Amino acid sequence: MRRRTIQEEEKVADLTPMLDVVFIMLIFFIVTATFIKETGVEVNRPDTKTAEMKKTVSLLVGVGADSGIWIDKKKVDIRNVRPTMERLHAENPKGGLVIQADSISKVEKVLAIMDAARQIGITQVAIASEEN
Predict the structure, then answer these.
(1) CATH code where residue 115 lies
(2) CB half-sphere exposure, 130, CA atoms < 13 A
(3) Is 57 within 8 Å of 96 (Cβ atoms)?
(4) Which of 36, 40, 63, 120 lies at a CB distance of 3.0 to 4.6 Å from 73, suitable for a disulfide?
């Protein structure tokens, strides 16, 4: 009879390489993930038949049913729309602006947002709608 030594009985697989791979994959998915931007207000977008999907959106502005303006989940006064948009656009200047306006909101608010966008140099401006 042969006696086993303690070292032979306690063989354990080294999990360090597997954990390294898991952490690298986790970092990869976090970096490449696209996060959904929200305005901070629930809107009923108007229906349309010619809606197109925008791929690069750096700025999302919402106009609620009460014509309140929401940017980055915060209600913004009309006088502060341009500075707020300018700051957010400077962080990511590649994309355009999408305005999510409620179907019963005032057109004046949407036009004021579009005017502020033109003043800071945003040329890609779109209004969000529902596909019919």
Answers:
(1) 3.30.420.270
(2) 8
(3) yes
(4) 40
Residue 59: strand, helix, or coil: strand
Q: How far apart are CA 132 and CA 118, in angstroms?
A: 29
β-strand partners of 61: 71, 99
Among 29, 13, 31, residue whose Cα is nearest residue 21: 29
Q: Is 13 helix (H, G, I), strand (E, B) or coil?
A: coil
Rounded CA gap, 51 and 3, in Å?
77
Distance CA 52, CA 81 (A): 26
> Cα–Cα distance between 17 and 25 in angstroms, integer?
12
What residues make up the domain containing 121? Answer: 47-131
Element (H, E) at 131: strand 130-131
Number of domains in the chain: 1
List pLDDT tens digits, range 40-54: 677 766 666 666 676
Is 83 within the bounds of a domain? yes
